[in-house]
What does this fold into?
Amino acid sequence: MTAHPDETLRVIANRMAAHDVTRVVVVPRDEPGRVEGILGLRHLLEARRVDLHEEQHAERVLTPFRRTPRGPRPAGELLPDDGRLVP
It folds into this structure.
């Protein structure tokens, strides 16, 4: 079974699962006789691990800074930590 460098890992992983194979040979579309590499399950798992790490890091960075409100607030102002309106 072969894969091409321009295919996504999701497409390749789905093809591998459908054909019950654990490795594919990566060949360029314009030179099918030239092998660029071999992609195995270990590579797919490593790519997913990196992707999960990046997602978790992005969630930490995008989580708004939470602080405890101090002092009285004007009526109708949104509280920063839970989005409720102050009565």
Remarks:
- The radius of gyration is 24 Å.
- The chain is about 40% helix and 10% strand.
- The chain has a mean pLDDT of 81.
- The CA atoms of residues 11 and 43 lie 14 Å apart.
